Backbone:
């Protein structure tokens, strides 16, 4: 079973930081994680991953970037690299409401034509609401050619992040992945599945730390309950 990244949590966070800044900036983030998961499904057969991004944010809210990670889909599939590209715009609609929209393109490498067939485009949007209780989000992703199958696919996510102590944050999220064309894509015969995640985030000496507990309602070894730890460092270029 293959599932893929729709802008990793790391990438989304770095994009939001760039988009909110008042001046243009080029930055790169390097992340080491015990497991590369998206929507609770491991992209590395439950093994660690090294990831990196390069992002440029413009003064008017537009941004562009690229992100890469090692992957392992198991079996006879020798795909070993995911390399993504994205562009979008962040808009601060009011003091409390923001909107981030864009397009992404996902590519895969390592197994010749087989890996190349997985490439596909995707549109995404995030509506954010800031209050004294933290940051609430409604996120959506849609692809009309999911994993190169020609099938439609979308994800809807609700999330909330709050700071319980200075420099210490907790984020709760729940999302549902749905295949529009079950004849072209399923998860072990299921048209859709749910994913639940809670994570602790903090920073120390320039490093960003994340510890997450997550689970899905899929009955496969790459999507069961797990704890994921990651450490990242962002560099201004």
Residues:
């Amino acid at each position: 079973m293959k599932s893929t990244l729709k802008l990793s949590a790391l990438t989304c966070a770095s994009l939001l930081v760039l988009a909110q800044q008042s001046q243009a900036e080029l930055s790169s983030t390097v992340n080491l994680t015990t497991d590369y998961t998206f929507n609770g499904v491991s992209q590395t057969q439950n093994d660690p991953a090294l990831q990196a991004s390069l992002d440029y944010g413009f003064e008017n809210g537009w941004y562009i970037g690229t992100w890469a990670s090692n992957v392992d889909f198991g079996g006879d599939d020798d795909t070993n690299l995911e390399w993504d590209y994205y562009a979008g715009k962040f808009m601060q609609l009011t003091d409390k409401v923001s909107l981030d929209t864009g397009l992404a393109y996902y590519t895969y490498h390592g197994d010749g034509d087989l890996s190349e067939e997985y490439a596909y485009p995707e549109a995404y949007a995030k509506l954010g609401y800031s209050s004294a209780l933290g940051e609430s989000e409604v996120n959506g992703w849609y692809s009309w050619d999911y994993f190169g199958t020609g099938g439609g696919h979308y994800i809807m996510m609700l999330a909330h992040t709050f700071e319980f102590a200075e420099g210490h944050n907790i984020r709760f999220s729940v999302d549902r992945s749905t295949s529009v064309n079950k004849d072209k894509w399923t998860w072990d015969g299921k048209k859709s599945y749910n994913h639940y995640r809670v994570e602790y985030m903090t920073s120390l000496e320039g490093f960003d730390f994340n510890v997450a507990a997550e689970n899905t309602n899929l009955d496969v070894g790459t999507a069961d309950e797990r704890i994921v730890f990651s450490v990242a460092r962002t560099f201004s270029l």
In short: The chain has one domain: 9-236. Helices lie at 9-20, 112-116. DSSP finds two helices and 14 strands in the chain.
